[in-house]
């Protein structure tokens, strides 16, 4: 498979028979005539744009799986028949994909997707949103919410995961990634939600306490970067 980092939390995955696109809001995606499955975790402007409905090639088979917090009127009428609005903690089957959703700690859903014998996880904004200066009880509650939700991934043999590594959290930038590895992990983990500051990737990988995870974290450095797995 080939994984392309588009920007922010948007990734494009090309498989043998179809492609997956996650949280597109801007940027160029690789051209393909294969069936395309488009996932949007929630309506925030850095995770969703109606521009996504203009990406399909003429005659291309496209399926849209949108979190149900995205208003229906933002979907063009011609795309509605191929659109499924999804809710947290539900199971869905669309074409060649089977999808389980998790509940975000911010808004919308995270996706666990089975396709072509592989298992993919895209976190959306499901993250450990701990902030310096926030009340202790608030950060503790957030940590519990996040780690409790990740128990749904326990025992899953995830092949490819897309997980936040947000530099805005400063000293706590690593918590979402750390707890993900402790709960489930994956063969290949792509950092996301980095707001253009890719220094957090080598910072995480060079942290001694994360030595056992470092080889699984992909070296994402710039938009348009491609990885052959």
How would you describe the overall organization of this protein?
It comes from Candidatus Acutalibacter pullistercoris. InterPro entries: RibonucZ/Hydroxyglut_hydro (IPR036866). This is MBL fold metallo-hydrolase. Pfam families: Lactamase_B_3. With 229 residues, this protein is α/β, with parallel strands linked by helices. The chain is built from five helices and 13 strands. It has helices spanning 77-80, 136-150, 175-183, 200-205, 211-214, and strands at 2-7, 10-14, 19-22, 36-40, 62-67, 83-86, 91-94, 97-103, 109-115, 118-122, 160-164, 188-192, 226-228. The strands form two sheets. The protein has a seven-stranded mixed beta sheet, with no helix packed on it. Strands 7-8-9-10-11-12 form a six-stranded mixed beta sheet, with helices on one face. Strand 10 (118-122), helix 2 (136-150) and strand 11 (160-164) form a beta-alpha-beta unit. The radius of gyration is 17 Å and the shape is globular. The chain starts with a strand and ends with a strand. The model has no long low-confidence stretch (mean pLDDT 97).
């Amino acid at each position: 498979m080939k994984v392309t980092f588009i920007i922010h939390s948007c990734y494009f995955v090309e498989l043998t028979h179809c492609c997956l696109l996650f949280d597109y809001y801007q940027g160029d995606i690789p051209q393909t005539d294969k069936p395309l499955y488009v996932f949007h975790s929630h309506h925030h402007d850095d995770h969703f744009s109606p521009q996504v409905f203009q990406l399909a090639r003429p005659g291309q088979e496209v399926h849209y799986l949108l979190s149900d917090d995205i208003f229906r009127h933002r979907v063009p009428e011609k795309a509605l028949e191929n659109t499924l609005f999804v809710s947290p903690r539900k199971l869905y089957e669309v074409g060649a994909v089977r999808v389980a959703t998790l509940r975000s700690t911010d808004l919308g859903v995270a996706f666990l997707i089975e396709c072509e014998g592989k298992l993919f996880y895209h976190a959306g904004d499901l993250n450990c949103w701990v902030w310096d200066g926030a009340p202790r009880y608030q950060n503790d509650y957030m940590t519990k919410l996040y780690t409790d939700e990740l128990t749904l991934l326990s025992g899953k043999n995830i092949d490819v995961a897309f997980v936040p590594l947000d530099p805005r959290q400063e000293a706590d930038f690593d918590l979402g990634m750390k707890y993900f590895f402790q709960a489930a992990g994956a063969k290949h983990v792509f950092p996301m939600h980095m707001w253009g500051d890719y220094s957090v990737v080598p910072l995480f990988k060079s942290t001694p306490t994360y030595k056992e995870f470092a080889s699984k974290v992909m070296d994402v450095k710039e938009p348009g970067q491609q990885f052959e797995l």
